[in-house]
Amino acid sequence: MFTARLRPTAPMVLASLALSLPALSGCSSSWFCHDTTAERGEAGRKVQVVDTGGQPLGVTVEAVGWRLKPHPQVPAEGDKVHFDYRFDGADESRGPTVDACAVDKDRVALRCTTVGAAGAWPEPDGTRTGDDWLDVDHPGQVAAVLFLPNDQSHDRPPCAADPKDGGGTHPPESASTGDRL
User: Fold this and answer.
1) Which residues pair with 101 in a beta bridge?
2) Which of 82, 112, 132, 159 has its CA 20 to 30 A from that of 147?
3) Cα separation of 64 and 58, whole Å?
4) Partners of 131 in beta bridges
5) Integer Cα distance of 80 and 82 in angstroms
6) Contacts of 11 (CB under 8 A, 6+ apart)
7) 111-150: per-residue pLDDT in tens?
8) What is the mean pLDDT of residues 81-87?
9) pLDDT tens digits, one per residue of 141-180
């Protein structure tokens, strides 16, 4: 009995090559770069820092105090928000970076800045502490200083900037004045 064997045709060879190309180049099965943005976590005085997947990093950051007072370098500009913070569980040489915001009684951001564990001072107990200033338009409206839990330190390049290695999940946009936290 004779068994027929199919001879590969040029279109079949090209299709086979096209399907194997991503595997050979180290790319995933997707031909396209995809950008997504992580969801912003709930702000608090003390938060567990999370990665872009929402998984805890084992680091907490806490606003340990804040006060209104003139900045020593520009006292004529009036009161600013001076706040102290503490990272617990952060790495000595690098660490997460998070947004800190002065908010009013309705948790609306009056001004925000980004602070990082790497810029804080190491303490004997293993924590890292720091302080920063926020210049708000109406200092008397400040009710608290809150942190957002999302780590902002490992933002990958977007697909538009690097279509081969970019993409993936990015941290949410940094908080800004007027955002409800």
Assistant:
1) 112, 146
2) 159
3) 19
4) 84
5) 6
6) none
7) 999 999 998 999 999 999 999 999 999 999 999 999 999 9
8) 98
9) 999 999 999 999 876 777 888 787 777 787 888 899 999 9
Strand partners, 49: none
Tokens 């602070």: give the residue. 115
Cβ atoms 136, 81 nearer than 8 A: yes
E strand or H helix that includes residue 181: none
Token representation of residue 174: 């940094």
Token output for 180: 């409800």
The Cα–Cα gap between 102 and 87 comes to 18
The model's pLDDT over 17-34, given as tens digits with 9 standing for 90+, comes to 444 444 444 444 446 788
Distance (Å, rounded) from C-alpha 86 to C-alpha 64? 7
What is the distance between the alpha carbons of residues 77 and 68, in angstroms, rounded to a whole number? 12
Q: Which tokens sit at 111?
A: 């001004």
CA distance 25 to 117: 37
Which residue bears the tokens 């200033």?
133
Task: Specify the residue for token string 């006292």.
Answer: 75
